[in-house]
TrEMBL record:
InterPro entries: ScpB_csome_segregation (IPR005234), WH-like_DNA-bd_sf (IPR036388), WH_DNA-bd_sf (IPR036390)
Domain of life: Bacteria
Sequence intervals crossing the membrane: none
PANTHER family: SEGREGATION AND CONDENSATION PROTEIN B
Keywords: Cell cycle, Cell division, Chromosome partition, Cytoplasm
Family matches, as Gene3D superfamilies: Winged helix-like DNA-binding domain superfamily/Winged helix DNA-binding domain
Pfam families: SMC_ScpB
GO BP term (any one): cell division
Protein name as catalogued: Condensin subunit ScpB
Organism (species): Sphingomonas carotinifaciens
Keyword Magnesium: no
Length: 195
């Protein structure tokens, strides 16, 4: 199996969604022509024809899928991914970055009350579990992340969580003053009526 065929196989194996020939070509470096990528796809389709998973074409997109004659084996075990609400995502991040943390501390950081269902969803997902009780009046329960949380997000330890600079560099955070500055610029921008 040549290097291009292996690269195409790796890209398709890791893809979350079916990919076009052009998208595959870009991922493998763009030096291969579309015809060469199609030849690699044909080679892979032939190679995987009798295996437990096959290369399939859906319109102009390609993907690996379970062999049709074995699909029945996976139907009962297939879990549907569950989307987290914004509140659950924020709560999970607070717990991960500040653990062990109490419900009151999560609410103080978020600035809003935490609904009971939010923590339940995170515990059902296996990402959060109750920790020890704090040795303070009322003895509030703390919450911590689990090994499943680390595995689900590909982390070896909580030290591998991205820092503030990493999140900002990835474009996931805007400085508060930059956001306020943008809002002011929009408010001052002339409209068609000012004209």
């Amino acid at each position: 199996m040549n290097a291009l065929v292996r690269a195409v196989e790796a890209v398709l194996f890791a893809a979350a969604e079916p990919m076009t020939v052009e998208a595959i070509r870009r991922h493998v470096g763009g030096e291969a022509s579309a015809a060469e990528v199609r030849d690699a796809l044909d080679t892979l389709a032939e190679h995987h024809a009798e295996r437990g998973f096959q290369l399939a074409r859906r319109g102009d997109r390609w993907l690996f899928q379970t062999a049709p004659d074995l699909a029945h084996l996976l139907r009962r075990q297939r879990d549907e991914p569950r989307r987290l609400t914004r509140a659950a995502t924020e709560t999970l991040a607070i717990i991960a970055y500040h653990e062990p943390v109490t419900r009151a501390e999560v609410e103080a950081i978020r600035g809003v009350a935490l609904s009971r269902g939010t923590l339940d969803v995170l515990m059902e997902a296996g990402w959060v579990r109750p920790g020890r009780r704090r040795e303070v009046p009322g003895r509030p329960l703390t919450y911590v992340t689990t090994p499943d949380f680390l595995a689900s997000f590909g982390l070896e330890s909580l030290r591998d969580l991205p820092g503030l600079a990493d999140l900002r560099a990835a474009g996931l955070l805007d400085p508060v003053d930059l956001g306020a500055e943008r809002m002011e610029m929009r408010a001052e921008a002339p409209t068609d009526e000012d004209g």
